[in-house]
């Protein structure tokens, strides 16, 4: 009888734990701009604003450091190491083929905005891609759904002014429940 109780409890906890892990614990608002020379796409300029709880440890570690202080550079490097370990949490596609990124961002930084930490970086494509007449798809997400990464509005993906006349952007938010 004791074994049955322990087995039932283990099963309950396993199911409960699975359900509890199926929702996000951290939230990041995304903004993305295209890095181009007018004819080729060379990267994505990312801006990730973390929720206050996710930001708390970073901001505590930064203390009263001013923008550009060494502590911000150190914290940015630590956060970027995690992002790089997850392939920038981003996939980029062109004509059904995965587009590769360089292993390191060309620039990155971390800053405080009120009670939130903001990570900015340029995600460089390994090879520049042509723009004229092309269609690209990119997705930024945490496959475990521990972190909810989202665009608050369609305008959070921004085209350079020179491309706005001939290019369009559509933002589609994934539904993790599907």
From TrEMBL:
InterPro entries: DUF1007 (IPR010412), UCP008159_ABC (IPR016537). The keyword Signal applies. It comes from the Bacteria. Pfam families: DUF1007. Keywords: Signal. This is ABC-type uncharacterized transport system, periplasmic component. Residues 1-22 form the signal peptide.
